[in-house]
Design brief:
Strand content: 35-45%
Distance between the termini: 24 Å
Structural class: mainly beta
Number of domains: 1
Low-confidence stretches: none
Largest sheet: 5 strands, antiparallel
Length: 110
């Protein structure tokens, strides 16, 4: 196949403003992934766009298995609010209010 570039579960993007730390959420346009390494602003960073990750969440929020989850790029955390946030996947664990993280299956389809 002459036009194949890569599998697509890991892609390289420029790190957003302020840079990113390994395991941090990265949002570039409508592409969301988890940084595989630290990167300074505008440096290339490899991000995982598929898989299940423990993600920081709005503490005062209960989430059920199967709930759609959204990335709040200002707070750098997951919540269930679609307005102003980016859909990144679904919860694969149920978590109570309060709790610091939720397991999220990323949805690499845009």
């Amino acid at each position: 196949m002459k036009n194949f570039i890569q599998r697509g579960d890991v892609i390289t993007v420029p790190a957003p403003a302020g840079g990113v730390l390994s395991s941090g959420g990265v949002l570039v346009g409508s592409i969301f992934g988890i940084a595989s390494h630290d990167a300074a602003e505008n440096a290339d960073v490899s991000i995982e766009v598929t898989g299940v990750y423990a993600m920081p969440k709005t503490s005062a929020l209960a989430i059920a298995i199967g709930d759609k989850v959204y990335w709040d790029n200002t707070a750098k955390e997951v919540n269930k609010t679609s307005s102003g946030n980016t859909l990144i996947g679904v919860a694969v664990s149920a978590v109570a209010n309060p709790s610091p993280t939720v397991n999220v299956r990323l949805n690499a389809q845009f």
